[in-house]
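Supplementary Note 3. Input sequence used for the single-chain structure prediction.
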Amino acid sequence: MLEKLGINPERVAKFKTIDGRVLERPIGIAIIECVGERTGTTIVFGEQDDVQVLGVHALEGLRLEVDPYTGELKPVPVILAV
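The predicted structure, written as discrete structure tokens, is reproduced below.
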């Protein structure tokens, strides 16, 4: 799907699964938009059986969080600065 959108892999990265396996997947950079917010983020070129998720890196860039009660995305009112 990503290649159909004109997004190309930049390099290959390693990922550790919850069961301890290490997988290698191509990664790239894309502009994404969700719930009216837009940002650039790293994306992973998954394989046929991989799960499609919006990861924490993308959510932080979009300034969104998951409401623990409803499971819906909502805007982060204030970004933590340290």
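The first strand starts at residue 11 and ends at 16. The first helix runs from residue 56 to 62.
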